[in-house]
Amino acid sequence: MKRLTIVTGAVGILALAGLSWYSYNQIQRNKDIIREKKEEMERNKQITTPTADSSEIVAAPPPVTNSNSELTPSLAPPQPKETIDIDWNSPSYLTAQMPAKSIALTLDDGPSKKYTEQVLDILKQHQIQATFFLVGYRVKENCPLVNRIVREGHTLGNHTYFHPKLTKLNREEQKEEIEITQTEIKKCADKLPRWFRAPYGAQNETTLQVAGEVGLNTALWTVDTNDWRKTATSKSIADEVLKSQGQDIVIMHDATDANPKLKSPESSDTRQNTVEALKEIIPQLKKRGFKFVTLDEAFLSPSKPEVK
Ligand SMILES: [Zn+2]
Q1: Radius of gyration for the chain, computed over Cα atoms and rounded to the nearest angstrom
Q2: Catalytic pick among 108, 227, 248, 296
Q3: Is 108 an annotated catalytic residue?
Q4: pLDDT tens-digit readout, 169-209
Q5: Ligand 1 centre and the CA of 133: distance in Å?
Q6: pTM over 0.70
């Protein structure tokens, strides 16, 4: 019996050691990719002359001088903010700016070959536009799809590179996630998103500051379809959206989990229900006189020049 306990214990320790070694390697690999991306960005900065875009990417907070550092934070003048943050504390105030009977469909976690193409086909068929929050590493894998999204008039959003929980990362790491995704999208589609959405809606004050420094507006959502859950059906997804009276931002997903390490046991391995739900939602809302808007159309003044 004693021997069995020792053997079981030893096996347990070995398994734990193996697991830690695996996680350690995963973390190292991610860090390596971020480092490579950062070096690539530095190289690009050196060889290109500053333009309106690059100044937006690298816009840093003003340097702290000696005279400033004597000020207590509460006496420092507030930093003017040019971007807007649509979070859960003030959605009605901001979404009230949307045209009456308008709805913004947003699709997170793509692009994916399996679902993004189908979603684009449906949107094209009904001649409406949506907003796509893209995951950086998937942009790299599916660049032609990003170009199709742009070509068909949809709005692009940044949804981080590895889809982490940003609230677990420090300021520098959060900024890296956002910046390398901007760079990847710019490289692929020659266009910079003006919107950011935090994965899982997990954001803190640092996230909002960092996104603002990169020149990004942030948007969470007001209608959660829960389309990622195993329990979701095309009907449950459609019903949630069809309850809307307008002036809503709807979250849906055109790809399966972007970060396998954070995948919930509740999460489904398909997003086909989302595709099927869209086929119901769009004609029904159109019949009720709804207008489909992108986040650009809903919140950014057309006079503000587009970042290209
Ligand atoms: Zn996501």
Answers
A1: 22
A2: 108
A3: yes
A4: 999 999 999 999 999 999 999 999 999 999 999 999 999 99
A5: 8
A6: yes
